[in-house]
Write a structure and sequence with these properties.
mainly beta, 4-stranded mixed β-sheet, 3-stranded antiparallel β-sheet, 2 helices, rod-shaped
Length: 215
């Protein structure tokens, strides 16, 4: 929002010098100016306010003002990741841009190595986060110089439970009646299991946790 004014022998003024747009028009001293794309890219634009040519020998007056266009601070926390509970350490891949020169991670109760100010730090979830199965981290940029605010972005780490297998206790059978009823079980991230290692037969099949095995 411009704040032009005229005085002396002048009764009005006109803005010029920019490739953008004036609202409602360039003849409004306190017009709103929207820079063009090229001016935003360049980061600056200089506007000139010129008065009308007053009656008499005096010439029109003019003055300049410069608008500095600061780049927006951007943060990219990287793609969401999934890890196993037995090896939950994650290598982060954060990045910042625009007006930002650095960033800080937050939001987790685990540990950052070497620290939370390192964009590609290694994050080790806490026991509570491993139990919960997820943690969301936020990467926030520094507050850049000028009117633009800090930027932020989030990443979610999904911590998958380890697959567990329990084949049951060792068993002994008589050679005359060698059929064994197995008592396998699976847990954690596992939903099924398969028996292997024997030359005998599984009934009904090797994918049945409580199958009968005939040596």
């Amino acid at each position: 929002t411009l704040a032009g004014s005229v005085g002396g022998g002048a009764t009005s003024g006109t803005w010029s010098g920019g490739a953008g747009t004036f609202k409602p028009n360039a003849n409004t001293l306190k017009a709103q100016y929207s820079p063009s794309s090229s001016e935003i890219t360049a980061g600056t634009v200089t506007l000139t306010l010129t008065t009308n040519d007053p009656t008499g020998p005096c010439q029109a007056g003019s003055d300049e003002m410069t608008i500095t266009i600061h780049p927006v601070a951007t943060a990219n926390a990287g793609a969401n990741q999934g890890v196993c509970a037995s090896s939950p350490t994650v290598t982060l891949a954060g990045s910042v841009g625009g007006g930002a020169s650095g960033g800080t991670w937050s939001g987790g109760t685990g540990t950052f190595n070497p620290n939370a100010n390192t964009l590609n730090a290694q994050y080790t979830p806490s026991t509570a986060e491993i139990t919960a199965g997820t943690v969301t981290l936020t990467l926030t940029t520094n507050d850049p110089t000028g009117p633009c605010e800090a930027g932020s972005d989030q990443i979610t780490i999904t911590i998958h439970p380890d697959a567990t297998a329990n084949a049951g206790v060792n068993q002994g059978v008589c050679a005359s009646s060698p059929i064994v009823t197995l008592a396998g079980s699976v847990g954690g991230g596992a939903t099924s299991g398969t028996w292997s290692g024997g030359a005998g037969t599984f009934n009904p099949n090797a994918n049945t946790l409580n199958a009968q095995y005939t040596p």
